[in-house]
Design a protein that fits this description.
This is Type-4 uracil-DNA glycosylase. Pfam families: UDG. InterPro entries: UDG_Type-4/5, Ura-DNA_glyco_family4, Uracil-DNA_glycosylase-like, Uracil-DNA_glycosylase-like_sf. One of its GO terms (molecular function) is 4 iron, 4 sulfur cluster binding. Belongs to the uracil-DNA glycosylase (UDG) superfamily. Type 4 (UDGa) family. It is a single chain. This protein has a 5-stranded mixed beta sheet with strand order 2-1-5-7-6, sandwiched between helices. The protein has a two-stranded antiparallel sheet with strand order 3-4. Helix 3 packs across helix 8. It has one domain: Uracil-DNA Glycosylase, subunit E (3-Layer(aba) Sandwich), CATH 3.40.470.10. The chain contains 8 helices and 7 strands, in the order H-E-H-H-E-E-E-H-E-H-H-E-E-H-H. The chain is of the alpha/beta class. The N and C termini lie far apart (about 40 Å). Bound molecules: uracil and iron/sulfur cluster (SF4).
């Protein structure tokens, strides 16, 4: 099973978003609250791809509205990038978690789910045709640049992908988890400055 049979052909973003609500391309729809589709201008020059919605995003229905989103907002602003001009999405569009008491603990999506959900991401990229794609973390990099791509080695470098250039960096949640958060944040910001420089006219 993949999302392919749920993705309408030649559809605009609004149509895709509506169709994605009913996706059953993998098992994750079953326990999650809702599909969290990408958001942003349809003519965005840059698409940023996270991993999957977190707890807050799952409840809210919007990408990057929780703690990772706040960190991303801060870094975007410091790098001189306007969030309103960026299309933000995720490699996997339902929240994967395990329940521990009342808490829902994030689980990293596996290869099956990344592959199953890829048709939505492909459709978004085909519609938007961005100049630059930014992969936030290894899951996004795997979805866009292949499973051989190593974020640790290649982060902050501009690479040529299908019809666009791509830059990979760490996931904002990795910055939040890092024992040396300030250092991790500086590294993340440096990568986003590369993005800002690439977008300069
Ligand atoms: N982490 C992600 O990768 N995406 C979100 O939307 C939120 C947190
Ligand atoms: Fe469909 Fe992706 Fe949700 Fe799986 S995670 S049900 S493929 S939208």
């Amino acid at each position: 099973m993949t999302a392919a049979e749920f993705v309408p052909e030649h559809a605009d973003l609004a149509t895709l978003r509506r169709a994605a609500r009913d996706c059953r391309g993998c098992e994750l729809y079953h326990d999650a609250t809702q599909t969290v589709f990408g958001e942003g201008p349809p003519d965005a020059r840059v698409v940023m791809i996270g991993e999957q919605p977190g707890d807050r995003e799952d409840l809210d229905g919007h990408p990057f509205v929780g703690p990772s989103g706040r960190l991303l907002d801060r870094a975007l602003e410091e790098a001189g990038l306007d969030r309103e001009t960026v299309y933000l999405t995720n490699a996997v569009k339902h929240f994967k978690f395990t329940e521990r008491g009342k808490r829902r603990i994030h689980q990293r999506p596996g290869r099956t789910e990344i592959v199953a959900c890829a048709p939505w991401l492909t459709a978004e990229l085909d519609d938007i045709r961005p100049e630059l794609v930014v992969c936030l973390g290894a899951v996004a990099a795997q979805a866009v640049l292949g499973s051989d791509f190593r974020v640790t080695r290649m982060r902050g470098q501009v690479v040529a992908a299908d019809d666009y250039r791509a830059v990979a960096t760490v996931h904002p949640s990795a910055v939040l988890r890092d024992p040396d958060r300030e250092r991790a944040y500086r590294g993340f910001l440096a990568d986003l400055r590369v993005v800002a420089r690439e977008l300069r006219p």
